[in-house]
Specification:
347 residues; 6-stranded parallel beta sheet; 12 helices
């Protein structure tokens, strides 16, 4: 009886040791970028527009950059849920340029499947993620989660976040963004990518004149200087989403650290938290689910887009951005879990 148990414990120990070694070597990509080992090139895949997403609009009123969760391997989404969300968002905001080909887990936007040394491993992992066993494909998620931790780290984060800011600026310029204009930029950070969005804003705000707004969709992020550099951060969350609570692991998000960037941003009125419904974090029943519906028949993805588009539209129309402004957009059967039902909108 003891021998099989010891074998299992030995395998678990080897796996844990492997993760620790992997984590220890994760910052080398960031340090290599800083040392100039990878050159100055920022990569991108030539992907044609579908007429909605990645479409250059001559009279655009805003630019929206979507940064995906930790399941991606490149700037191209392989999720039909994400694709539906982006198309629906582009339809809801026809005067916005929606950019989705940024890979937030690479310092130079290079896809994992295009890396010079480990491309075969990531292609194998991607096949496993698609065809199974899914557990093997989760090494992509683990690798990208380590990048999130690097971005949040006080030692390596400033380097990684500066690289990511260059990737975002490069993405804006590819879609004819005028850097000397006052056209606002909205960075949508989904899940762990919100940390990259917050971190990069610190530097991107120095390079463009327009305000930068962070739209956190179930976002996981630490207390970072980017929270103060951003014009405002809107944090959308659902009742069944437990992942976004992982941000509380970061000590400087705790109320006792009154001088942290997070708590200072809250005191300055830069943070608005918006409950948008019963959604979970991802997959079925998640924010981007085009099949799950609310009692009124609206799809989860439609309600997520509605809430996000309402914020963007209100900012563009220079309306006051308070929670009261958005209550008419949230049906009365979707109150905040710990709050009384919302009053009916005035006629």
């Amino acid at each position: 009886m003891l021998e099989p148990l010891m074998q299992v414990l030995a395998l678990m120990g080897i796996a844990l040791l492997g993760l620790l070694v992997w984590a220890a070597f994760s910052p080398f990509e960031t340090l290599g970028w800083w040392a100039g080992w990878f050159g100055d090139e920022i990569y991108h895949d030539e992907r044609p527009s579908d007429g909605l997403v990645r479409s250059i609009r001559p009279n655009a009123k805003c630019y929206i950059i979507f940064m995906s969760g930790i399941g991606r391997v490149s700037g191209e989404t392989l999720s039909y849920r994400e694709a539906e969300f982006l198309r629906t968002l582009a339809k809801a905001l026809p005067e916005a340029v929606v950019i989705d080909d940024v890979f937030p887990y690479s310092v130079n936007n290079l896809a994992l499947t295009g890396q010079p040394f480990f491309a075969r491993i990531w292609r194998w992992a991607l096949r496993r993620k698609r065809d199974g066993p899914a557990l093997a494909g989760n090494i992509i998620n683990i690798r990208n989660a380590f990048q999130v931790l690097i971005s949040a780290d006080s030692r390596y984060g400033p380097i990684y976040n500066q690289a990511m800011a260059e990737v975002l600026l490069h993405g804006l310029l590819r879609y004819d963004y005028p850097v000397d204009s006052d056209i606002p930029v909205f960075v949508v950070g989904y899940s762990g990518a919100c940390q990259m969005a917050v971190g990069a804003t610190t530097y991107l705000a120095e390079w463009i004149k327009a305000p930068i707004y962070i739209l956190s969709l179930g976002g996981v992020f630490a207390s970072d200087a980017g929270l103060l550099a951003a014009e405002h951060i809107y944090h959308f969350y659902g009742k069944a989403d437990w992942v976004y609570h992982l941000s509380l692991v970061a000590p400087r998000r705790w109320p006792i650290f009154a001088t942290s960037e997070w708590n200072r941003a809250k005191r300055q009125g830069k943070v608005t938290e918006l409950y948008i419904g019963p959604m979970g974090h991802t997959g079925r029943g998640g924010y981007l689910d085009p099949k799950a519906t609310l009692p009124d028949g609206a799809r989860y993805v439609d309600r997520t887009v509605e809430a996000m588009a309402a914020v963007v539209s209100d900012i563009l129309s220079k309306q006051e951005t308070t929670l009261q402004d958005y209550r008419p957009h949230v049906p009365p059967y979707l109150p905040k879990p710990d709050a009384p039902p919302l009053p009916a909108a005035a006629e």
